[in-house]
Each structure stands twice: as C-alpha cells, then as structure tokens.
Write a structure and sequence with these properties.
The protein is elongated. It is an all-beta fold and about 80 residues long. The two termini are about 20 Å apart. It has a 4-stranded antiparallel beta sheet, with no helix packed on it. The protein is about 0% helix and about 55% strand. Strand 4 and strand 5 form a beta hairpin. The chain has one domain.
Amino acid sequence: MRAEVVRYGSFEYDDGNTLGQDAYALTNLRAGVRGKRLFVEGWVRNLFDTEYIPLAFPYPGLAASGFVGESGAPRTFGVRVGTTF
C-alpha cells in the first residue's frame, strides 16, 4: 500500500502578477497484493478530483481572461496486473 500527498504553493502566471493559481494538493493512492509470480494493484490519482491549472500563458484577445491554460488531470483510476520472471 502507498499513499502520497503532493502540495503545490500558489504562483502567478505572468510577471505582472495579474492572474495566478492558489495553492493546492494532489492525493494519490495505490494498493495491491503480490504472490510468488503474480501481482494485482489498484490505483487512483488526484483522489479528491482537485481542479487546478498548472500552466497558463498570457494571450490577450484570445480568451476573456487574457490567458490560455491547460487544466490539470482529473481523478483517474485503474488496475494493474502483471507477472515476474
């Protein structure tokens, strides 16, 4: 089993400090079982579905805010199954 919390401090997108991102944290979990040769793991990233914009560029005229950015990854989850040799 593994759990991690990554915290990011607040920051501004431009030198003029006109728009920025508040501090946020992302929580990731992973748990599984391992046999002699086989393993199964379940995982989830961004457990609490935190909405954040890690990157934005000033682009006046294209967007109402004057910035174009990329939203952070939403909650994702999956299962991993494998074998060792």
